[in-house]
Amino acid sequence: MNVIGQVTVLPELPGSIGRLSELAYNLYWSWTPHAQALYQALDAEIWERFQHNPVRTLLEVPQARLDELAADADYLERYRQVLADFDAYLNKQDTWAKQNAAKMAPVAYFSMEYGFHESLPIYSGGLGVLAGDHCKSASDLGLPFTAVGMLFHQGYFRQLLNKDGWQEEAYDELDLTTLPIRPARTSSGDEARVQVRIAERDVHVRVWELAVGRIRVLLLDTNVPENREDDRKLTARLYGGNQELRLQQYALLGVAGIRALRALNIPAGVYHMNEGHAALLGLERVREFVEGGLDFRAAVEAVASSTLFTTHTPVPAGNDAFAYELVDRFLAKWPGRLHVSRDELYALARHDQFWDGHWVPTFSMTVFALNMSRAANGVSELHGEVSRDMWKFLYPGAEVAEVPIGHVTNGAHNLTFTSQAMRDLLSTVLPQGWEERLEDEAMWQAAEGLSDAQLADVQRDMKRGMVQFVRRRMREQKIRNGASAAEVAATDTLLSEDALTIGFARRFATYKRATLLFRDRERLSRIVNDPQRPVQFVFAGKAHPADNPGKAFIQELYRMSQEPEFQGRIVILENYDMNVARWLVQGVDIWLNNPRRPLEASGTSGMKASFNGAPNFSILDGWWREGYDTTNGWPIGEEREYADLNVQDDADAYSLYSTLEEQIVPLYYGQADAEGRGGWAGTVRRAIQTVSPRFSMQRQVIDYVQGYYLPLTTRGAAVAAGGGQRAREIAGWKTWVRQQWPHTSLSASADLPTTARPGQTVEVRASVNPAGIRPEDLRVEAVLKRGDHVTRVPLAHAQGGQYSAQVTLPDSGLYAVGVRMLPVIDGLSSELEAGLIKWA
Ligand SMILES: *Cc1c(COP(=O)(O)O)cnc(C)c1O
After folding, report:
1. Probe ligand 1: pick from 52, 410, 507, max atoms within 8 Å of CB?
2. Is the pLDDT at 556 greater than 60, yes or no?
3. Alpha helices of 92-179 — where are they, by DSSP H?
4. Is the C-beta atom of 386 inside 6 A of ligand 1?
5. pLDDT at 1 over 80
6. Are residues 85 and 130 both part of a single domain?
7. 786 falls within a domain
8. Where does the DUF3417 domain lie (predicted)?
9. Which residue owns the Cα nearest ligand 1 atom 5?
10. How far is the CA of 557 from the centre of ligand 1 (A)?
11. What's the pLDDT tens digit per position in 383-417?
12. For residue 821, how far is its CA from the centre of ligand 1 (angstroms)?
């Protein structure tokens, strides 16, 4: 038809269930299945059709149905209970934050993507789900916290597999009136609008807000009539475009994001850049300080002292870098605005890379983020190491171990991913209020009290539900692709409710090696088709639209799933999203992850599976290298890297098959020992007990508070105090020592015997020309290196630039001994901050 306009007829909520609308606009429901059930009960078909979206369900449900339930005693009782819990949650006074972080400054958290729920498709995968989970736990803990992101009105993409198993992408224009968002309003009641100058245009940005429990998320949107047509599309798709679009999106997130906070008067004292995408927030904050009277360098000190940067991947595609000319096109006005030369500004982002056969300087978002922050971290212990190695070129003269990038291992939001049935079961053994102390390892010991039978019952039901879900989805897919009636009918027998079921779902980035399982097809076939002890696999995952190798992996999986020997036992589901993720982590018996070590910075889906009693079976990479304790799941391969990727793939595949055949399958199908312990359920219990607390998002956010947010609160305030007095001093001092540094000199000597005993001391001496740098501002030190282990011993200043110390050789081993000096003053975030190290 020819549409001339649109009108939404809003049903009227009867008074007795009047707060269903209020609840729909707070994502509290996204981790509260009982709350979701209230909307599902309105109309199960609508609920399914609209991705479990409460706002949409309320819009679509017939008035008569609302009136009917408004008089249903059972429904009303459930409604009252959910709202009582909701109120208690929102009004809780003695939060963790109040008791443990009362002095913490409000945090502003910036992320390109957020995965809160399948009905709000503004995420692509792990990074977004992590950010969404981080917000949820920030709310649970009662932190002063505001998140900033983008409202992609076509979201990421919906994945369709065609009849050849090739991924196709569909983009649906979201109807914003059906999302749980509202225009953010300023104190005067107006809708918040901000502007950003990109190239020669003023781009207008509308700001939406989303309530996630106690906290707010601001979402930026350029799809407003004031903007040119192409600017309206700047916030259309997540990771959708070319380099030009990306850079403009990053400018929006960073610059408009800060302006949105200011327009809404939202206080912030600590800024958290979740991935390099957010780094340009540094530009806008520097501009604010410059406007307040600081020079560029002092302003950078002030900004960086209150900023944390989290890097999430060593994979090059995850570390954007732009040609200088491209940056010139979009950010040409910034050097002038900041009273700095283009060269000096770009130097803070410079990463020389080998592009098209020669070395070119590029504007790296990761480098800029590192320079715009004074605290940085990777997302697992191993990823911290990998990151220090990857970015050590920014800290010339430093040992890898000293590169100031720490780590906080990722977690997942337990309640978002744990099935209601498992939560009910856990409530029978864990103390009351366990949902509020998820990080408490001692508390989780009580999960020992879960019996084999109880666990088996819950897991059987969850698996049954998952199998039904897979069949429904595969049926829809077959029908859409024009399959024959026989093929459609065959979906009713996909998978068995009794077979050992292994889940594998994630983005199909090639390093995740989705097809590793098929490396020895005959062996796999024997495992899968064992008549007594069958094994089946459920795969799901999206490839980035431009990633043809990733799509080829999907197609290969699809083809394998159609082979007679695997049919019905290996399935690949389309459109992996948070809904599919929940079904799988709750319904499978084991979670499989076989990335190419060390490229999986953390991984989180295996944590979600363990929360539900599906032990993890994975390469010792990312979180699993820390989580695996020999009793709570299984490793694949060894703790090492390989020079030859083919050899690595062979070794890992071999290990995967052997562990399955020799350990996992016999344990799953075997009997428990005499006490009924130690068998399969023993591993299940261990997975729940050990992974739930240590890899809870709550533990993760507490680590951020203690390791970063609290220290940055103090340091940021000190550096910015008195109109940035300390920032000026630090910046002035750095400028000065950098000038003097080429004129300094250092020579050293040591009386080193060829062999020595443990505990023996040696004298180390140095002679310094400090070029005017005060002795108290100069650290001269001996460095002892044994393997990766570095010990630093300061040399004492005698006079006339002479330094010495008696240095103890603590233990046996081969030591390398060196002497170096570096300028330091009080109040730096690390001794490497000045970036000057001179070795003798
Ligand atoms: C948890 C999750 C991911 C991340 O999984 P990894 O283990 O990090 O690969 C990706 N997508 C969805 C929908 C998830 O829920």
Report:
1. 507
2. yes
3. 96-100, 126-141
4. no
5. no
6. no
7. yes
8. 13-120
9. 605
10. 19
11. 999 999 999 999 999 999 999 999 999 999 999 99
12. 45
